[in-house]
Amino acid sequence: MKEDIKNDKNKKTERIIKENANTLSYYSQNIKFYLAGFCIAIWVFLILFLLGFFSFNKTPQLLLNPKVINYIENEAFNEDFNSTEIQTEDNKNHTILSAYPILYHIWKKQIPDLNDEYYLIKKQDNNNVTINSILKDLRLPEIKTNGIKWSTLNSLSFTSPSKNYIIDIDIEGNTLYLLNNDGNKESSSNALSQKDIKKIIKSELTKLGLPLTYYWEPVFENNLSGYIDVFYPKKIIGFEVRNSENEQEGMYIRFDLEKSNILTLSNYSTQAYQLSKYPFKKSVDELLKILQRHWNIDITKKGTENSLSMKKWKFIYLQQDKYLIPALLFNGEKTKKNIILPLY
What we know:
Blueprint lengths: L1 H56 L11 E3 L32 E2 L11 E7 L4 H11 L16 E5 L5 E6 L4 E6 L13 H14 L11 E6 L2 E7 L1 E2 L2 E4 L7 E7 L4 E9 L3 E7 L4 H9 L4 E2 L9 E2 L2 E9 L2 E9 L6 E5 L2
Parallel strand pairs: 1-13, 2-14, 2-15, 10-16
Antiparallel strand pairs: 3-13, 3-17, 4-5, 5-6, 6-12, 7-8, 8-11, 9-10, 11-12, 16-17, 17-18
């Protein structure tokens, strides 16, 4: 019995040795094929990597550096934003409100619940990093940027790498403009939908390194003969921006419907911002007093017989000199008028 068990073990061991020997022999005979396949895979990876690298870097990324939004410590600006001083009749400001004799009604219950703190936004003063970044990304080694006095440089004008556009950058105003330079492009007979136009615009701007990160979905405006005007509203941290004249900030594009390309682009923002949180200390009554100092705002509970109710509101940022201030924008059901209430 013991001898039979021993014989079985020996047979099993011999079988394993034989199988291992066959496996080793197989891989030894075919190792050159495995090495060849491995080498081919390495070469394919290297080729794809290099192609991807050059493809990624062949287009100048004009405005991806520096960061457009820079978060800094709380209450970092040397300004008093929480003053509740009420202006007198002599110096009150009517620029963001309506003209006499229309009265607009805003009551306490129409003021929404507000947060304990908000971001205040300051335009970043230093443009040096932006300009250096542009020149670096354009890879112009013949320009020695160290010797240039950026404080005296007001604008840059150059042609895009594809030669399709003339690009003007207003350094002082932090805006960019495009003018189509491709007069030889043939007209297209294809009818374009708004979706098609948005896709073409986004593709063109992406090639130029101009992201649409800080713009809302476009609004199609004047449909002219052969052209259409497209407005991209500006947004900061998810909110629309309006200037002191109650106009919505944004970028304007005129699109050539016949040639299916951008004809002109204006007011693309290159501005960088600093964001700092500030406590919000005003009460609803104080906000109502701010409204009341404008003689055409009715803050009574039910409103007068002739006043127009401003029931709808939304949170926006209001541009005031070098700052963007949180504000409430009210508009009414029976009027297209907007009324802005700055929170700081």
